């Protein structure tokens, strides 16, 4: 530590001593990831307040060869924001970069700092009579910078797209400390390579995103949600087409949930009644947003569900009759990631597949997994409207946690082999981070990996930006 005394003093001069954490106690919350799977080390956690301060800190790190781990809300699920154990690094937290820079209602854009919490960005848009549609269960803690770093998805990708689709411009501090100002609010801009697209999803390995200009949308006048029991997974896919083709309202979310996942928190589902007993073991939580009033939307939803019953796609449905009830349905869905933790050691997969392959994938993979290790259960839920499944595996009882852990690599291999045999991806939303880094070269073509390595080398030749992540 002594050898870094001058570096720490310089950081203190640049951003103020109270924003340079060096004690173990102060650093602790920043050194372990949300799932508690990864813990690392850093000589300091730095909390600058604006782009200029980040630029100065990054220049200093570049000069002293000190690695940097960008961190937003630390809700990432792949260990991307956690420093490694080895090497000398600092965490740069964006928690103080929390200014809303501009709302341009006519251009339907918001420009804001990267440390703004997602839920706050949604609230600010709402107060201007607009919608910022990115929505995910960690929205109370995750940041715009983290959403960009991981190209976050969530429940409304079906209608509005993921973070990449919602972004018009970004500001970045490059690995040498220069400030790249690309905060343009343009929907058309064909002026060479799209650098913003390079940084989105780069998980802090190419620079620190310090601000962004994002798209806003008209605020729907009404939203209706329904939980429906489907006859089988194939019916879920037919139901998406039916919803898109037969309703004026926008289908804004379509979540497939196994009843096993749904009933993890029995308290939350006690009022759902017979829907939990659906013989197929599958339900769909869907949401329509509309520019029409509540009653018109509800009529449309009822007509849609009536038609789905007639077509024998669904067997039962609960319609939320108030905003409160709709919120309750969504809180069950959003509570699943936490609720499953009580099952013991969980092996998580965040996969995507062509929608047409989902039913066969689920059926075949479960059978193969049971042959590999009968003492496991699947916990499946996800944004099936865009082909994204959280395909998680838990032991049949928590005391078998050690046994499932011992099988982690063979289980991962089996699931990922299945994913690729069905033309899917083993990382749909959460990114690569540390958890999938070693497998990336095996799953992507060698040319793709070579190009990615060349880009990394060109932009960060000293490999100081989030080393050990992604590549
Ligand atoms: C309960 C729960 C539910 C979730 N649901 C979803 C979901 O539905 N969809 C989804 O996509 N994700 C989901 N996630 C994952 C996570 O919330 C997202 O990946 C989120 O975008 C991470 O934001 P963050 O601010 O917490 O980033 P962090 O965890 O702090 O960082 C994530 C990565 O981005 C990098 N990074 C952070 N800030 C910056 C920056 N300013 N510039 C450059 N790189 C940066 C980090 O280095 C790291 O590699 C969920 C997580 C939890 C805990």
Would you give an account of this structure?
This protein has 471 residues and is α+β, with helices and mostly antiparallel strands. It has four domains: 2-93, 2-Layer Sandwich (Uridine Diphospho-n-acetylenolpyruvylglucosamine Reductase, domain 2), CATH 3.30.43; 100-218, 2-Layer Sandwich (Uridine Diphospho-n-acetylenolpyruvylglucosamine Reductase, domain 3); 222-339, 2-Layer Sandwich (Alpha-Beta Plaits); 344-429, Alpha-Beta Plaits. Helix content is 37%, strand content 21%. A seven-stranded antiparallel β-sheet has the order 15-12-14-13-17-18-16, with helices on both faces. The chain has a five-stranded antiparallel β-sheet with strand order 5-6-10-8-9. β5 (100-104) and β6 (109-113) form a beta hairpin. The longest helix has 17 residues, at 294-310. It is globular, with a radius of gyration of 23 Å. The mean pLDDT is 94. Residues 34, 69-77, 80-81, 94, 114, 136-138, 142-143, 145-147, 149-150, 152-154, 203-204, 208-209, 337, 429-430, 433, 466, 469 line the site of flavin-adenine dinucleotide.
Please name the defining characteristics of this protein.
seven-stranded antiparallel sheet; binds flavin-adenine dinucleotide; Uridine Diphospho-n-acetylenolpyruvylglucosamine Reductase, domain 2; 471 residues; Uridine Diphospho-n-acetylenolpyruvylglucosamine Reductase, domain 3; alpha+beta; Alpha-Beta Plaits; five-stranded antiparallel sheet; 18 strands
């Amino acid at each position: 530590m002594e050898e870094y005394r001058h570096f720490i003093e310089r950081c203190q001069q640049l951003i103020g001593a109270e924003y340079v954490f060096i004690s173990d106690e102060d650093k602790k919350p920043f050194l372990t990831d949300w799932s508690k799977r990864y813990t690392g080390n850093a000589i300091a956690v730095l909390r600058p307040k604006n782009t200029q301060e980040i630029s100065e800190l990054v220049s200093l790190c570049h000069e002293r060869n000190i690695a940097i781990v960008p961190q937003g809300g630390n809700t990432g699920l792949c260990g991307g924001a956690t420093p490694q154990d080895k090497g000398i690094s600092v965490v740069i937290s964006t928690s103080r970069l929390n200014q809303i820079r501009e709302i341009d209602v006519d251009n339907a854009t918001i420009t804001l700092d990267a440390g703004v919490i997602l839920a706050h960005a949604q609230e600010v848009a709402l107060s201007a009579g607009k919608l910022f549609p990115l929505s995910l269960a960690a929205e109370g803690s995750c940041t715009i910078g983290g959403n960009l770093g991981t190209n976050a998805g969530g429940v409304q990708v079906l209608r509005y797209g993921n973070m990449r689709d919602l972004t018009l411009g970004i500001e970045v501090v490059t690995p040498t400390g220069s400030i790249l100002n690309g905060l343009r609010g343009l929907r058309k801009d064909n002026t060479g390579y799209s650098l913003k697209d390079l940084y989105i999803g780069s998980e802090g390995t190419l620079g620190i995103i310090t601000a962004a200009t994002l798209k806003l949308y008209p605020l729907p006048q009404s939203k209706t949600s329904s939980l429906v029991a489907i006859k089988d997974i194939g019916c879920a896919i037919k139901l998406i087409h039916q919803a898109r083709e037969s309703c004026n309202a926008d289908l804004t979310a379509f979540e497939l949930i196994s009843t096993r996942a749904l009933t993890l928190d029995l308290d939350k589902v006690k009022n759902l009644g017979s829907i939990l007993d659906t013989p197929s073991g599958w339900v769909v939580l869907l949401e329509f947003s509309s520019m029409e009033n509540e009653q018109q939307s509800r009529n449309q939803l009822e007509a849609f569900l009536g038609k789905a019953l007639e077509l024998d796609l669904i067997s039962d449905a609960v319609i939320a009759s108030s905003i409160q009830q709709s919120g309750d349905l969504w809180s069950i869905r959003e509570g699943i990631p936490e609720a499953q933790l009580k099952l013991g050691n969980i092996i998580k997969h965040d996969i995507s597949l062509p929608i047409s392959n989902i039913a066969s994938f689920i059926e075949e993979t479960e059978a193969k997994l049971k042959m590999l290790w009968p003492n496991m259960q699947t916990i499946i839920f996800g944004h099936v409207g865009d082909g994204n499944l959280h395909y998680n595996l838990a032991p049949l009882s928590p005391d078998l946690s050690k046994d499932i852990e011992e099988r982690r690599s063979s289980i991962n291999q089996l699931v990922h082999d299945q994913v690729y045999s069905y033309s899917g991806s083993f990382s749909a939303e959460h990114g690569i981070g540390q958890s999938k880094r070693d497998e990336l070269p095996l799953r992507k073509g060698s040319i793709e990996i070579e190009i990615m390595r060349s880009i990394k080398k060109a932009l960060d030749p000293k490999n100081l930006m989030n080393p050990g992540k992604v590549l």
